């Protein structure tokens, strides 16, 4: 009889796993409380000064991440009537890892009735040799309001970009409002950097505003500049997309849109 082979222990997953969790609820005094504020590893959370009824949270990078093979997740749950503003303290650098595995960065937002969330992180920089998959998913009740900004910078100064795949999905009242995907860098479909893609620009971004007030007064489609456009969506929402030569100009374009459609 041949002896049985010894049991083997599965190898642990490569890379770092970390999740930041935020829970926001009305505090009964006209403000917003944060009963859940928990970060792990490189995802440290700090409460900032409130602005009226809106609670503020800053995401602070406690170490270099994401590296190849890392999986980072940010989860925020805004209860009925809660007001929450989420920002990051600095740009996020997607860096290559040792084993060549892609990194993942997930953002999950949940907004109950009459909740309001602003997710306004700093830029994501796709460093040469990196491979990052970003997935952002927001689920909103019909009366919730959301402002969401995404900014990507393709490579540092004088550097080719890494591979970046970003998907944004928004569900409102159980129905899809927006589902789109962006691919840039090595391995992306051909033409991503051509005239039908980003046309050689190094910075790209978007601002999404979902607001029930748009049902009665929908925004009009318009152009903000040569490479920036406002697109009303099939719902009470507007999407601003922009291309720019650098991060500074990109932020100027999106800030202009935020002032026009924000609250």
From TrEMBL:
Subunit structure of this chain's protein: UreD, UreF and UreG form a complex that acts as a GTP-hydrolysis-dependent molecular chaperone, activating the urease apoprotein by helping to assemble the nickel containing metallocenter of UreC. The UreE protein probably delivers the nickel.
Q: Which GO terms describe its molecular function?
A: nickel cation binding
Upper classification of the source organism reads:
Bacteria, Bacillati, Actinomycetota, Actinomycetes, Kitasatosporales
What top-level branch of life does the organism fall under? Bacteria
Q: What is this protein called?
A: Urease accessory protein UreD
Q: What does this protein do?
A: Required for maturation of urease via the functional incorporation of the urease nickel metallocenter.
- Gene Ontology terms, cellular component aspect? cytoplasm
Q: Where in the cell is it found?
A: Cytoplasm
HAMAP family attached to this UniProt entry: UreD
Keyword Chaperone (UniProt): yes
Its keywords, alphabetically, are: Chaperone, Cytoplasm, Nickel insertion
Is Chaperone found in the keyword set? yes
Q: Name one Pfam family in it.
A: UreD
Q: Which residues form a coiled coil?
A: none
User: What family does this chain come from, according to its entry?
Assistant: Belongs to the UreD family.
């Amino acid at each position: 009889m041949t002896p049985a082979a010894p049991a083997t222990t599965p190898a642990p997953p490569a890379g770092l796993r970390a999740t930041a969790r935020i829970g926001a609820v009305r505090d009964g005094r006209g403000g917003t409380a944060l009963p859940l504020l928990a970060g792990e590893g490189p995802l440290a959370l700090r409460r900032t000064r409130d602005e009226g009824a809106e609670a503020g949270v800053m995401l602070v990078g406690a170490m270099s991440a994401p590296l190849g093979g890392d999986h980072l997740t940010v989860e925020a749950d805004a209860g009925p009537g809660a007001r929450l503003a989420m920002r990051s303290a600095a740009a996020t650098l997607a860096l290559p890892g040792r084993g060549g595995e892609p990194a993942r960065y997930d953002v999950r937002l949940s907004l109950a009735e009459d909740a309001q969330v602003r997710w306004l992180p700093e830029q994501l920089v796709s460093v040469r040799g990196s491979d990052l998959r970003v997935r952002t998913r927001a689920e909103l009740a019909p009366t919730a309001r959301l402002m969401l900004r995404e900014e990507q910078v393709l490579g540092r100064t004088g550097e080719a970009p890494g591979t970046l795949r970003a998907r944004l999905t928004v569900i409102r009242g159980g129905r899809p409002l927006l589902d789109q995907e962006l691919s840039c860098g090595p391995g992306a479909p051909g033409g991503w950097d051509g005239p039908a893609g980003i046309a050689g620009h190094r910075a790209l971004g978007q601002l999404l505003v979902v607001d029930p007030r748009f049902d009665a007064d929908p925004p009009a489609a318009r152009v903000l500049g040569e490479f920036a456009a406002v697109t009303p969506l099939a719902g009470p929402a507007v999407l601003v997309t922009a291309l720019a030569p650098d991060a500074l100009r990109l932020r100027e374009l999106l800030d202009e849109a935020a002032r026009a459609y924000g609250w």
